[in-house]
Fold this sequence. Notes:
With 245 residues, the protein is α+β, with helices and mostly antiparallel strands. The protein has 11 helices and 4 strands. It has a 4-stranded antiparallel beta sheet with strand order 1-2-4-3, with helices on both faces.
Amino acid sequence: xxxxxxxxxxxxxxxxxxxxxxxxxxxxxxxxxxxxxxxxxxxxxxxxxxxxxxxxxxxxxxxxxxxxxxxxxxxxxxxxxxxxxxxxxxxxxxxxxxxxxxxxxxxxxxxxxxxxxxxxxxxxxxxxxxxxxxxxxxxxxxxxxxxxxxxxxxxxxxxxxxxxxxxxxxxxxxxxxxxxxxxxxxxxxxxxxxxxxxxxxxxxxxxxxxxxxxxxxxxxxxxxxxxxxxxxxxxxxxxxxxxxx
Length: 245
Ligand SMILES: Cc1cc2nc3c(=O)[nH]c(=O)nc-3n(C[C@H](O)[C@H](O)[C@H](O)COP(=O)(O)O)c2cc1C
C-alpha cells in the first residue's frame, strides 16, 4: 500500500529547500530503481548523477532555461545506453545489430528505471521532476556529460527535498474511461469528455494562480503539436549511435 500511496500523491516538484540530498539516500533510491524490469535483462540504460553547480547550470540552459534544473541539488541524467551491449558483442567478435527495436528497447528501459527512481525518491519524501527538455540539445548534453557513442539522455530527473509550502495540488488526469479499456478498445466520440477535461485542467491552473486558456488540454495540443516537435532529433540520435531502420 505504501507504493500506492506514494503514486497517488505524485506531483512534479520544481522548488526545493537547501537541505542536501546525502550520498546514502541517493544510493538507496538508485539501487532500488535498478531493480526495475529491463528488456531481455539488457539494462540498456545509465544513470549519471550531476551535483556540480556549473554543470547543472549548463544543463538547465540546454533544457530551455529551466530554473529547477540548476536549483535541484541532484540532477540524474537518465540515459538510454547501448554502448555496453556493443562492448559485450565485441568481446565475442560480434557487432551489435542496431535498429529501431534496439533504440526503443533502450528508451523504454531508461523510462522504466527513471520512473522507478522517481517513485523511490518520492517514497523517501523527496520531490522530483522529469526533464524531457534536455532533448532540445541532445548532442550538446551528451558531450557535456561525456557520454560514449551509443548513449543519449532520454530525460533528466531533478531530485531535492521539496519546499512543501510550494507543493502544488494534484494535477487532474484524463478520466479513466478514456484511458483504461477492458477487453476491447472503446472508441467513441471523445469530444465531450475532452471538453470536460479542458475545463477541469483550466480550473486547476487558475487555482494555482496561473493563467490558462479555456481549452487547457486540447488547445495546447492543437497549437503545440500540429507541427513536428524536435524534427532534428532523429538525425541527432543517429550521430550518437542509434539507428531507426
Ligand atoms: C518524460 C517526461 C519529461 C518531462 N519533461 C519536463 C520538463 O522538461 N520540464 C518540466 O518542468 N516538467 C517536465 N515533465 C513533467 C510533466 O510536465 C508533468 O509530469 C505533467 O505535467 C503532469 O504533472 P504532474 O507530474 O505534476 O502530475 C516531464 C515529464 C515526463 C514524464
